[in-house]
Amino acid sequence: MVAPDTVRNVIIIGSGPAGYTAGLYTARAMLEPLMFAGYMSGGQLMLTSDIENFPGYPQGIGGPDMMLQLREQAERFGLEVQDKNVESVDLSTRPFAVTVEGEVFHAHALIVCTGAESIWLGAEGEAEQKGRGISTCATCDGAFFRDEEVIVVGGGDSAMEEATFLTRFASKVTLIHRRDVFRASQVMYDRAAAHPKIEIRPFRQVERWLSDEKGLTGAVLSDPRTGETEEIACTGAFIAIGHKPITAFLDGQLKTDEEGYLLHSQHTMTSVEGVFAAGDVVDTRYRQAITAAGMGCQAAIDAERWLEAQHD
Ligand SMILES: Cc1cc2nc3c(=O)[nH]c(=O)nc-3n(C[C@H](O)[C@H](O)[C@H](O)COP(=O)(O)OP(=O)(O)OC[C@H]3O[C@@H](n4cnc5c(N)ncnc54)[C@H](O)[C@@H]3O)c2cc1C
After folding, report:
1. Assigned fold of 120-239
2. CA angle at 21 for the pair 303 and 311, rounded to the nearest 5°
3. How many angstroms separate the CA atoms of 215 and 98, rounded?
4. Catalytic option among 113, 137, 280, 283
């Protein structure tokens, strides 16, 4: 039996734009939310220097600065944040149980905002250039590479889309893929292949990134069939080999699509009543800070209305 006075109205899991926005709204709705910020307090934007596409910052803002401001704003209205990782949840009974570093917390409603990790290549020299010369988001970072040569790594629709989008800025886009079979749809492939600024190079993979004190300068590519290597010059690189939603701690208790993204059943509610989800952990399409924040707002309003309805 759980002592009723220890049960929180809402626990928010994850502290990216979705989590902090859900925190702001639930705090302002007097729900006294508790947030577990997780292993990466502040989320993915802690990895990037300049955000130019979040409304309200005409001069742009550094990712970590923006996330600190979102946190400060939500805390001002009473969001309680613990910089700890959720190990597991039990959604089989209500109130829900959330285990954090061995301690169990209970809540009537949960909002899951754990995001999706970009899959990186892990090639030598990558860590140093992450969020600088090497990115996983052309929409976010493409505009930093005006009239420069960039490469895109990948063979699916995202890689084609990123390459085509980058032609707006870059003087040349080289798309490399380790095979000559592309997962991309024919129409997306044809559009990229027909673009005069895009060169598609099959049977190429990144062995190592090259850089100097100013940033990325190129990559050593190899042919996986022969092991032969060559150097390519580029000041930007976009890795488009997929994302992995962070849901392992849920242990299959919420329905997902085949790639593991959480599914909404009604508005932002998941397959378990009282559990809501927002941001990149459900978003296979937009994956932007502003869309994550927007969904965090929706999840907070849905949670608030659902909690209200429980008292009727
Ligand atoms: C390098 C880079 C640059 C980008 N630039 C831009 C940009 O310029 N503009 C833009 O709009 N978007 C940009 N994006 C995309 C943007 O960062 C994401 O769309 C956004 O952060 C998604 O927000 P989110 O709240 O869904 O999740 P995230 O920001 O991914 O946050 C997930 C949170 O969940 C937490 N978490 C995970 N597991 C657990 C757990 N078990 N327990 C507790 N917490 C947990 C993590 O600690 C983290 O706080 C960029 C992304 C990257 C990687």
Report:
1. FAD/NAD(P)-binding domain (3.50.50)
2. 20
3. 43
4. 137
| pLDDT tens readout for residues 142-191 | 999 999 999 999 999 989 999 999 999 999 999 999 999 999 999 999 99
Q: Do domains 4-117+243-310 and 120-239 have the same CATH topology?
A: yes
- Architecture category of domain 4-117+243-310 in CATH: 3-Layer(bba) Sandwich (3.50)
Domain extents in the chain: 4-117+243-310, 120-239
Residue 225 Cα to ligand 1 midpoint, Å, equals: 36
Cβ-proximal residues to 187 (8 Å cutoff; 6+ apart), any chain: none
Q: Which atom of ligand 1 is nearest to the CA of 87?
A: 41
Tell me the pTM: 0.88
Is 140 catalytic? The answer is yes
Collapsing DSSP to helix, strand or coil, 299 comes out as helix
pLDDT at 235 > cutoff 90: yes
Q: Identity (one letter) of the amino acid at 206? A: V
Pocket of ligand 1 contains residue 23 by CB under 6 Å: no
Is the beta carbon of 45 within 6 A of some atom in ligand 1?
A: yes
